[in-house]
Amino acid sequence: MANEKVLEAKKQVVLEIQDKIKNSASVVFFDYRGLTVEQTTELRSKMKKADTDIKIYKNTLMKRALDSLNIDLDNVLEGPNAITLSSDIIEPIKVLTDYAKHNKALEIKGGIIDGKVSSVNEIAELSTIPSREGLLTMLAGGLIGVARDLSICLHLYSEQKSE
Questions:
Q1: Model confidence, pTM
Q2: In the predicted model, is pLDDT for residue 2 greater than 70?
Q3: Does domain 4-129 have CATH number 3.10.100.10?
C-alpha cells in the first residue's frame, strides 16, 4: 500500500492539473523527445513571451485529471508528453507550430481548445489564423478603404452640385 503522504501529493497534482486545464483557453500536448536542452530552453522562453506555461506531468496523473473532467485523450497520452497552458488560444499554437516546423523532433499530438478536444489537423488550422494585431490591421485597412471611397464620392457630389 502506498504511503498516505505520497497519495495525498498525487491527489494535489491531479487537482492542480484539473485547475490549470479548466482555466486555460488552450492546452496543447506535444512530444518533446529529441529536443536538446538548448532547444527546450529556447522553446520555453518563446512560450513565456507568449504568456504560456509548459508543464510535464506523469501520464497516469494526467489521465486521472482528464477522466475527472470527462475529456478523452487516451490516444495522446502515450509516451513522454509536455503540455502548453495558456489563456490565449491562437498565440501559443502559432509559436509551437512554428517551432515544430524548424525542429522536426517536436511533434504536436493534440489538445483542448475552449474545452473541446482538438485534433492535430484542427490545431494546424488554428495556427494559420493571423494574430490579433494582424486581424486588427486588416480591419483598419478595410475601414480606411470605405472612408476613402466615401470621401471621393462626397467630393465628386459637391463638385457636381457647384456646377
A1: 0.77
A2: no
A3: no
